[in-house]
Amino acid sequence: MNDYLAERFYRPLGLATMGYNPSERFSKRRITPTENDQKWRKQIVQGSVHDMGAAMLGGVGGHAGLFSNANDLGVVMQMLLNGGTYGGRQYFQPATIQNFTAQQKNGSRRGLGFDKPEINPHWSNPASSKASPRTFGHTGFTGTCVWADPDHNLVFVFLSNRTYPQMNNNKLQSLKVRTRIQDVVYEAIDKRIK
Question: Would you say the pTM of this structure is higher than 0.70?
């Protein structure tokens, strides 16, 4: 999967950092540590996937293990926002993007592989309450999140390392850091439009 994605998507998109097992491509100086895991691995996890299941798969999993910088994540999200096109090249058909980023079932906010803004006002929203219903994205276990809002032509990338030194740090969630920053971005857009 790693080789296929690198050949078909990462290289053609010009992504310099995106991929699995970054320690095979970069020095540790360029890779932020993920966790000081004293329970299972008995070491600082740096340059390998944090998720134990993906680690057992050699660091390459469909659900975890992808490393990237903010620029590369932004390019991927912009390509999806563009309906599958980037740099004059079509990577996915627009209907495929629409299908995977749409809400799939009544009562659930989830798309196929993407999260969506919360539809139940009593539950915590992973995206800004100002985000349009067509917004799609992902929040990773380590705290990193990416969101694309087609109605505002907006890509939001937030890189985080909430699991270092320990994975029980939940301040990003409890303080609503990511959604509050998104709110500020939407407020700035609203002020500019007015």
Answer: yes
Do 108 and 192 fall within a single domain?
A: yes
Q: Which of 23, 156, 19, 183 is nearest to 77 (CA)?
A: 156
**Residue 4: inside a domain:** no
Host domain of residue 162? 102-194
Domain count, the chain: 2
- Please tell me whether residues 43 and 109 are part of one structural domain: no
- Model pLDDT for residues 131-174, shown as the tens digit of each residue: 999 999 999 899 999 999 999 999 999 999 899 999 999 999 99
Query: What gap in Å lies between CA 34 and CA 106, rounded to an integer?
Result: 36
How far is the CA of 140 from the CAs of 13, 122, 189, in angstroms? Answer: 22, 22, 26
Query: 137 with 188: CB under 8 angstroms?
Result: no
Q: Scanning the structure block, which residue is given the tokens 């500020």?
A: 184
Residues sharing a CB contact under 8 Å with residue 37, sequence separation 6 or more, in sequence order: 43, 44, 45
